[in-house]
Structure formats: structure tokens, C-alpha cells
Amino acid sequence: xxxxxxxxxxxxxxxxxxxxxxxxxxxxxxxxxxxxxxxxxxxxxxxxxxxxxxxxxxxxxxxxxxxxxxxxxxxxxxxxxxxxxxxxxxxxxxxxxxxxxxxxxxxxxxxxxxxxxxxxxxxxxxxxxxxxxxxxxxxxxxxxxxxxxxxxxxxxxxxxxxxxxxxxxxxxxxxxxxxxxxxxxxxxxxxxxxxxxxxxxxxxxxxxxxxxxxxxxxxxxxxxxxxxxxxxxxxxxxxxxxxxxxxxxxxxxxxxxxxxxxxxxxxxxxxxxxxxxxxxxxxxxxxxxxxxxxxxxxxxxxxxxxxxxxxxxxxxxxxxxxxxxxxxxxxxxxxxxxxxxxxxxxxxxxxxxxxxxxxxxxxxxxxxxxxxxxxxxxxxxxxxxxxxxxxxxxxxxxxxxxxxxxxxxxxxxxxxx
Amino acid sequence: xxxxxxxxxxxxxxxxxxxxxxxxxxxxxxxxxxxxxxxxxxxxxxxxxxxxxxxxxxxxxxxxxxxxxxxxxxxxxxxxxxxxxxxxxxxxxxxxxxxxxxxxxxxxxxxxxxxxxxxxxxxxxxxxxxxxxxxxxxxxxxxxxxxxxxxxxxxxxxxxxxxxxxxxxxxxxxxxxxxxxxxxxxxxxxxxxxxxxxxxxxxxxxxxxxxxxxxxxxxxxxxxxxxxxxxxxxxxxxxxxxxxxxxxxxxxxxxxxxxxxxxxxxxxxxxxxxxxxxxxxxxxxxxxxxxxxxxxxxxxxxxxxxxxxxxxxxxxxxxxxxxxxxxxxxxxxxxxxxxxxxxxxxxxxxxxxxxxxxxxxxxxxxxxxxxxxxxxxxxxxxxxxxxxxxxxxxxxxxxxxxxxxxxxxxxxxxxxx
Lengths: 417, 417
What we know:
Chains A, B: This is Putative competence-damage inducible protein. Chains A, B: Belongs to the CinA family. Chains A, B: It comes from Neobacillus vireti LMG 21834. Chains A, B: InterPro entries: CinA, CinA-like_C, CinA_C, CinA_KH, Competence-induced_CinA, MoaB/Mog-like_dom_sf, MoaB/Mog_dom. Two copies of one chain form a homodimer. By secondary structure, chain A is of the alpha/beta class. Chain A contains 15 helices and 17 strands. Chain A has helices at about 10-15, 20-30, 45-60, 75-85, 95-105, 110-115, 155-170, 190-205, 230-245, 260-270, 285-290, 310-315, 320-325, 330-345, 390-415, and strands spanning about 1-10, 35-40, 60-65, 90, 120, 125, 135-140, 145-150, 175-185, 210-215, 215-225, 250-255, 275-280, 300-305, 350-355, 370-375, 380-385. The first copy, chain A, has a six-stranded mixed β-sheet, sandwiched between helices. Chain A has a five-stranded mixed β-sheet with strand order 14-13-15-16-17. In chain A, strand 6 and strand 7 form a beta hairpin. In chain A, helix 2 (about 20-30) packs parallel to helix 7, helix 3 crosses helix 4 and helix 10 (about 260-270) runs parallel beside helix 15. Chain A is globular and about 80 Å long. The model of chain A has no long low-confidence stretch (mean pLDDT about 90). At the A-B interface, helix 1, helix 2, strand 2, helix 3 and helix 11 of A face helix 2, strand 2, helix 3, helix 8 and strand 10 of B.
């Protein structure tokens, strides 16, 4: 089957936002074995939307709409589709109830135009919105499947993963099962990894191997098709083994797991708690750690020591260290990691100090980063790395390197035993 | 004039990359007074690209292509357009020379298929590529303007700014200037805001008023067209005044400024420093604050007090408070804010405590949030809010509400003086 994604919203045509929904849906449709041939973006204009629907019907079996399900008068996706298909919009009591509940929960006053969000295409399957108000819809008619999804990614993405995707795979007739697995690497560049495994990639057609780089990480997506799901999985295992013989040392995890989730797992497994002293990263490590539910079992808290006062008075870094070596130094990173672990009574202390830019600091160039890792009962290590890119990129990569170094340290100290 | 943007590349349809080029071009075309009615994405497939061109010609005057100008065999944008228009591809000696120079500069060996990049549509105006090899083209024929741009943003963006945009404005007869301004609101829902200003929106055609919601914020984009730019700005001022008479209390800033940037400005203006005690938000407030370069003038550091131990031992919250009221309580938020300000020697202390989920805490439901604000020399306030959504959404909104409450507090205490 093939699909087309139509994003509705003038804010996209004005360049106010970028169409990340098309990317998200394309990735997951590929995983379902559904080919995407077109993305279309059209504004909040019924006539142009109607025209776009007509074009899509002429060339695509599945038509997925995002956006235009909101409460305001320029939200007109379902109204336009209803008119185009000659269908009625009917009140969905379940959706209405959950919208009313949403307002009760958030102590806000429901306005009349919020009721409009509970109107759905007659005869459509409703996709519940667990993170917002507008319900999604799937309607199969006239040889096409129409799926309507809300525009905000934080509503659309979980809705598609939980309800939309499954609804499509149940409708797509193919008896081939599509199984895919993402291998996640860190500490090796995309070009280097591709060179290592190029011959394997080129020799493969099923499973396919697709490299994708982003944010210092490199991933390989393996996708196998076979009527027997177990055989498809075995096919993935075989290719993965081949790949790991070449670059296995850089593999840190699978699918959507992040370095921080992997680190949290490793700490839990060893019954270790971690704390952080963040100068360069200003709380980024701790906020990403606590974004993982259940982080409280490995993390009690930490300190953002942006200034030297806080490094000295809260984390007891020696004044001499700051005067002699500066805050961006191996010595400071070491004291921050060790003192944070002691003062916050954690098994592991990690510290981040460096220069995020735009200006250099203490005569050290932008991108200079020291990461201290103090693990109870083993010698403290300090890694120096040099990063490039924007302020955000440097901070983000520093956190990833910190996780990577600590993970390596935990695994090695375990192997040593 | 109106335009359509056609991005060519299978990597977009596979979701490997997101179409940021369409956003960039849309923003700048709006600035040139050119309306964008459609974005289309099509793969590296000549037949589907031909079909997309035909659709575009039927509805758009200007057709801008990005991507598919590379040296490899699946780069076929100009070849397909040439065949579609019955034009020849001719070698452009200037482009060829600059490609040869490019290889000399980067000490790389030029391959035969790089010569192919110097082939251009006969009769087209060449747009030099100062950051890569593939030249861009503009061709005016049959009542349409065709513009071909390379795919990589670091080549496309400077090419459009320097050569492509000017080429279009010289061709488009319009002498109208387009001026737009974004009003940013917080603390009012999209539906509620639109109900307030609906009549103004409907009465307006120039300037136009477009609402956009996201992440608890609502924005209104005002866009005015007039040959005299100063008059266009005055038109915006008039509409803004009307809008602010209704909902001005919720306006916090303009254009791309964030609540945190606005807060940083307000603190700087008053020579105040801020610290944070983050339980619920786990460092998110501090990491977003330090993501702003120059934050160090208002922020020295703070504490992530995820566990009660850290609340007690680092931030000196009374054991009795935690036992009697719990960590998710008005009393705890108050002590956290006040003690953080005292212990970290800051003028302002802000605290975040609450239940991010997925599970309830201390018998308090997910979404319960207390934000404490302790400003030197004025009574500490604690705001209780109830949020819904994912763990991330709750944490993100809590930070925004914290900024909003603190901003309000600073402005009011100033007005009080």
C-alpha cells in the first residue's frame, strides 16, 4: 500500500513551524511497510484543501491528514473532508466526555467552540487523544483510507503509535510481516561507521540497512520482511551479528533507547545512585535524567554550579584550584565530581565544566569540555573532549559524552571483577 | 504573486530528514510579499516529479524546487524539468570553473559526474553556489517562474538570500511591502483568546490576524501589506492596540522571544539574580535559563532537589514540613524558594514541586504543581496549578508558568513602587 501525508495549516506555509509530523509519520509508515510517495502542505483554506484531497485520491490509497482539528474557526480539516465525501459530522459522546474531563482536570472554563472538537466523521473509527482534546479518526470509503490526526506533535505522535499505526496495519492486506530494529552507536562518526559496514549494506536487500546520523549519534535501521515474524527476527539477528563484528564496541543500545535510559538501567542494575555538578551544561544532564520516569531510584539530586561562588561555597572546590587552573580544568572537574558525590551522598558523581560559547572563557577556546567521573571505590577519571557547533550542540554532546564515559566506566569496572 | 515549494528527495519521504528548506523559503517569500499556497515533497522518481510539476503549474505562478541537483544518478531534478519543458541542458562554463576550483581548494579529485553538476537549463539565469558545487537556476517561461535550488540548507539558504530572493523580487511586479509581527501570550487558552478577539480577527483583512497555539502559549501573527513600510508598521500598531485592550494582560513578548528570555531581560533590568530549587522539573528551568548566552549575569547556580534527603540536607526544608504536608505542598514550595535564595545568595528564589507522573505521589494526583517565588524584600508567594498531559508536557508547562508568575510578580512589584 502507498500513503500520502497532507499537513493542514497556514502556519506551515508562513514558515512559523516546520513539518516534523510528516517526518515522524514517514518513518513509522516505512516501518509498517507502507510506501510514502508524497507530502503535501496546504493552508487553512477549504478550496485548496479540497483540491489537495482530490489530487491525493488520484494517486494514493492511504491519505493521512495532520492539523486543523482545533477549536478555532480556521480549523476546518474534518469539515472540509466531510463536505468532500458527502458525510455528516456527528457528536462523539466519548470524545465530548473526555474534553469536559480535560477542562475539569485543568480547572479551565470550557468554551462553546471546544464542543466542536468532539464532532467526528460519521462511520469513522475514533482514535483517542490521550494528550489533548481533538480525537483522531480513520474512515475507509471509496477504496481509500482517510486518517485524521491532530497537529501538535505531542498529541499526534502518541496517538499514531498507540492507535493509528495498528489501525493501518490491520487494514493493509499484506501477509508479510515487517520487523525492524534500530542499532544505536556512539563514539564513532557516520562516515567512519558507513565505511566499516558499507559492503554489508550494499550486499543486503532483505533485511535492508539504513544509516542515519544525528546529534553525535549514529543509528542503523535494519528492516526485514517475511510472512513468518520469527524468521524475520532471525534475519535481523544474523545481520546484526555481522555488523557488530565490525563496530560492536560502539553499540550502546537498541530502537528508541537513549544513552541516558541505558545509563539509568546500568545504575539500577548495580544499585548505584548518581549525582551531578553541572557548570557547562547548566542542569541539562539532570533534567534529561529526571525526564525518565523512575529516575528517583538512581538520582536523589544535584547542583547546577554555574558560577565560581557556587562551585566554592556549595561544592567546596578549593579557591586555589579556581585561581591556579580555572573553572575549566581537569582539577576543577575532578573536585566537582568527587565533592558532589560526597556532599550529596551518592555512589557516583559526574561533573561537566567547559566553554559553551559564544565567547572563550579563561583563555580556553569554545568547545573545551572536561567531564569528571567519580565512582565509589575506584579512581576518579577526567575526560577532556573538544566539541564544535552551537552553544546548544556543545551542551547536548557534552551530556551524551558524559553518559557514554560513565557507561563505559561501569561496564569495564564490572568486567574487571 | 503566489508560489509553491517542491522538495525533491526520497530521504524526506523516508523520514530520514525533515523539510526545513520549505520553512526557510516560506518565511522569506512572505517577506517578499509572495504568498505560498502549497509545499510538496516528492521522491527521486521522474514520473512522480513530472506529475508534481504539472499540478504546480496548474495552481502556482512561481515554482521553487529544492534538492536533486547533486552528482549522483538519483539526482534528476533539472533533467526532469528540462524534459518536461522541452529544454536542453547546456554546460555552464562559469559553474564548471567554480566546481573545478572547489575541488582544487578542498584537495579532492573531481570525478566525471561532478561535471554533470555544471549542466544548466538553457536560457536560465544562474544562481552561484558559494557554499557548494551545484549552481541554482531561475527560468521564466510559459507564464511561470521556475527556480531550482540545491538541497543542503547550508548551500540553499545563502544562495536564496543572496541571489534567489532578489531575482524573484525583480521579477514580481508587486511594490507592496509585507510587515509582520507576532504577539506572544501566556496564561490564556487558544479558544479563550480567540473568543475574546474573534470580532477583530473577522473584521480584518489587512492586517491579517492568525492565531497559533503551542505548549501552553498562544501567538497572534499580524501581517500588513502596504507599499509604504512605515504605514504598514502603523497598521500593525493600530491592530495590536485593539487586541491588547482585550487580552493585553496575557501578552508577554513579541516575535521569537521566549518566556525565559523575557524573564532574563526583566531580571537584568532590575539587577536581580535568580536561583532555583527544582524537584518536579529536575533542572529544566536552570538548563533552559543557561541555554541563553549571557545568563551568568542573572544566574549563579541552583539545586535539583529530587529527593526529600536533598530537600532537607542541602536546602534545609524542615523535616516536620515534609512529614506533615509532604514534598508536594504549599509549605514545601515556600521553604524551597526562600531557603534556595538564602543558601545560594540570590535575590530571587523559585521552586518547583509537584507530580509529573505517571504515578500519583503522596496521594496527590498527577499534574499537581506548586511553584514558590521568593523575591527579596517582598512576601513569598506560592502558586498552585493543575496541569495535564505527558510527564514532559507537565514539566515543560510548569517551567513556563514559573517564568510567567515570576515575570508578573516583578512587573507588579515595580508598578507598586
